[in-house]
Amino acid sequence: MRDINTFLPFWEGFSVVNIKPDGDALQIDLTPHANRFPSCGGCLKPCSTTHEYCERVIRDLPILGRAVRLSVLLRRVACRDCGKRMEAVSWLDRYARMTRRLADAVIQACERLPTLHVAQMFGLHWDTVRLLERRALQAALSTLPKAQPRRLVMDEFALFKGHRYASVVLDADTRRVLWIGEGRSRAAVRPFFEELGPEGCARIEAVAMDMNTAFDLEVRQHCPKARVVYDLFHVVAKYGREVIDRVRVDEANRLRHDKPARKVIKQARWLLLRNPQNLKTPEQQVHLQDLLAANQSLMTVYLMKAELKALWTPGAAWAWRSDWKQWLRHAHQSEIPALIQFAKRLKGYWRGIVSRVRWPMHTGQLEGINNRIKVIKRMAYGYRDSEFFFMKIKSVFPGNP
């Protein structure tokens, strides 16, 4: 067996005494070196007295594609300080039924593969793989330094089908996901501010978000010094849904007796919503120009969208205020009900728009992270435990140093 121990030096302090096939697996019998005193599993001090021997079956990494089961003879020592304790083994955790090598390999595989695939690859139970990954995530998150954010980004993403959402809070400076919770109401995001504490809330200077009233009110309650900054993309998307789409449908209904003209307007939805620089072909540009020239209402709301986007690139607060008043005046003068209604609603959010002058922030960072979250969710075919899913997300986005 000396030659076997030379070629299989994986189990420090133990010798291979027998190798035999066990179905599709290999069973390897290990016995401790007789010339080495065992160490106490509690204080790690050498012990000369062995209280008893016990045998434990332990899983290890496969060898040549075959699963490995170790039959290990372990010693329970009589320690003067700790009493009767199992000996310390360098390649085995206390009470573990698999080696540290196998556990590390499983955790590394979980970073690239779904839990079910990892379980099948190593021949382990699904719950065992999930428990190993959970412990690794908890250990990794516990080593992260305490966050002291000054600027935040808040958004939500779809957690399950059926309009079930989760809220995400990101540190805008370090790109670290600070907190995730189910729901998008005030009660759902309140635990984050309670966890941040009064000192942490007082440190917050600005928060970027979409026009989510729940986020807005909760930030104003807990962070009175923070300025809310509304994201341009969400406002323009809302304008497209509530104004451009509404006017397009109204104009199509008005031309119900002119079927060719009605068809042109009905099929122009994405042409109107797309930015001019994103038109792919000259034919699309010509089509858009002809459409706007033929319909005054569509021309108005299309140009008003460009003016609305310009409000997010002001040079100074006084210039923004002048442009803002002009945009509101043009909206009311248009006599387009959908545009007038949108302007009335947007008027209550002007502070979050003008904050862009001082804090040029947006939720684009979090939108990119939300796309990565979707990939993580799809790779695992969904998660049964939301808490575990949230830990997985936090570990993927620990922030920049």
UniProtKB/TrEMBL annotation:
Q: Which organism is it from?
A: Pseudomonas abietaniphila
What is this protein's record name? Transposase
Q: What PANTHER family does this protein's entry cite?
A: TRANSPOSASE FOR INSERTION SEQUENCE ELEMENT IS1557
Which Pfam family, just one, is annotated for this protein?
DDE_Tnp_ISL3
Organism placement in taxonomy: Bacteria, Pseudomonadati, Pseudomonadota, Gammaproteobacteria, Pseudomonadales
Residue spans making up a coiled coil are none
Q: What range(s) does the Transposase IS204/IS1001/IS1096/IS1165 DDE domain occupy?
A: 152-393
InterPro entries from the UniProt entry: Transpos_ISL3, Transposase_DDE, Transposase_HTH
Domain called Transposase IS204/IS1001/IS1096/IS1165 helix-turn-helix: residue spans: 87-130
- Report the domain of life of the source organism: Bacteria
